[in-house]
Amino acid sequence: MGLKRRVIYGLLLCMFAATAVADALSVTDARLRLLPGDLPVAGYFRLINEGDDSVVLSGAESSAFEHVTMHQSTQVDGMAGMEPVPELELAPDGAIEFLPGGYHLMLMKRRSPIEFGAEVPVTLIFADGQRLSVQFQAVSPAAM
Length: 144
Fold this sequence. Notes:
The chain has one helix at residues 3-23, and strands spanning 25-33, 41-49, 55-61, 65-76, 79-84, 88-90, 94-98, 103-110, 119-126, 131-139. The chain is mainly beta.
C-alpha cells in the first residue's frame, strides 16, 4: 500500500473513532440556574458515557457567555467555596453528575439577556478534541 493510501486510511480511521466516541456520549437534565443581572450562572447536567473507552471532559464554552469554567463546590472548616476543575475523566459506561453542591459549570458575563425557559447553547469540550453541543434550559434558582 502506498504512502498516500496509508495516510488516507489513517485519517478515515481517526474520523471513524472520533465519531464513535461522540456517539457514545449523551447529556440529560441540562439546565442553567439564572441569577439576576450579570451575576454568574451555574450549569448543571448529567454526562453519560455509553462507550468502551474513558473520555476526559476538559471544558465548555457558550456563545451566550464570555467565559465558561468547571468548578467543584467545597466545604472547609464550615466555609463554602469552590475550586476550579481542569478536567474530569469519565469511565466507560459511567456518568458524571453536575449538581448543586458538587461539580458545576460557571458561566460568566452574559452577552445578552436570558429569560427563564430559554434554551442556551453550551458546547462540552473533551481532551481528545471532541465537542458535544447541548441545549441547556434557563431556570430560576427556586426550580433547583
